[in-house]
């Protein structure tokens, strides 16, 4: 998968000689066969900010496994939330979201959604490695998956993350749009989930509608017979991108 991600990035983002490549948002699904088992993966980003107690308690009460992508910033600022997660490592897999929540794009003055990227490869490596160390220190378990800030990557960054030995976690369903979506919108997005989907949402903004919307949407999926898995139990495959239509 890792080599394929690099090839995908290069093939999807043509650019002129000497120009900086555009970042790509990586979309993935579960790699295991998706027959009648209706498996899906819930992933929750803990970027910076706070701990969404309502969301995590809902998952615990309903025994819904999730993969949490936590930054060092979030782990350092939320000891209570971390203690709850550590008490339920049978449900939660904690993976690497970086040290400071920086997009995996390389180049001075480059940014994604207004968030500055890395000035060089050295800084990118630090973001990934220090994020991983923070997760292992906090949980006692070394992470194997990496997700950057914004979910967008440029080809050079993908190559470096591959060299560091981490698999990139994409997604196929954006449930809460960075914790900005309203409850009704989150519910509708989850109603459209299909077997094999990888859901992304957020657990670092308790003032948002994420917890309430996810509670309704995830309950619907449970009643529909979906089974939730963590990323440490599966692998992911790329979703083939549709070629852009040619103008007549």
Automatic annotation (TrEMBL):
GO terms for biological process: carbohydrate metabolic process. Residues 1-19 form the signal peptide. Pfam families: Polysacc_deac_1. It comes from the Bacteria. The keyword Signal applies. Keywords: Signal. One of its GO terms (molecular function) is hydrolase activity, acting on carbon-nitrogen (but not peptide) bonds. Residues 38-248 form the NodB homology domain. This is NodB homology domain-containing protein. It comes from Sideroxyarcus emersonii.
């Amino acid at each position: 998968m890792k080599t394929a991600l690099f090839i995908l990035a290069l093939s999807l983002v043509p650019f002129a000689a000497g120009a900086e490549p555009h970042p790509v948002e990586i979309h993935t699904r579960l790699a295991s066969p998706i027959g009648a088992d209706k498996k899906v993966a819930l992933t929750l980003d803990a970027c910076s900010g706070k701990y969404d107690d309502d969301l995590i308690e809902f998952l615990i009460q309903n025994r819904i496994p999730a993969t949490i992508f936590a930054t060092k910033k979030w782990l350092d600022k939320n000891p209570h939330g971390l203690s709850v997660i550590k008490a339920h490592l049978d449900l939660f897999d904690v993976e690497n979201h970086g040290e400071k929540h920086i997009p995996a794009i390389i180049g001075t003055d480059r940014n994604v959604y207004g968030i500055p990227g890395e000035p060089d490869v050295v800084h990118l490596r630090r973001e990934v490695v220090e994020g991983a160390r923070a997760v292992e220190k906090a949980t006692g378990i070394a992470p194997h998956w990496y997700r950057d800030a914004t979910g967008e990557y440029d080809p050079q960054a993908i190559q470096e993350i591959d060299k560091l030995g981490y698999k990139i976690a994409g997604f196929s369903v954006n449930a809460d749009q960075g914790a900005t979506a309203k409850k009704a919108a989150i519910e509708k997005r989850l109603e459209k989930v299909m077997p094999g989907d990888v859901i992304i949402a957020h657990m670092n903004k308790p003032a948002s509608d994420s917890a309430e919307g996810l509670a309704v949407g995830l309950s619907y999926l449970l009643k529909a017979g979906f089974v939730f898995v963590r990323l440490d139990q599966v692998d992911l495959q790329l979703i083939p991108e549709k070629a852009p239509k040619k103008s007549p």
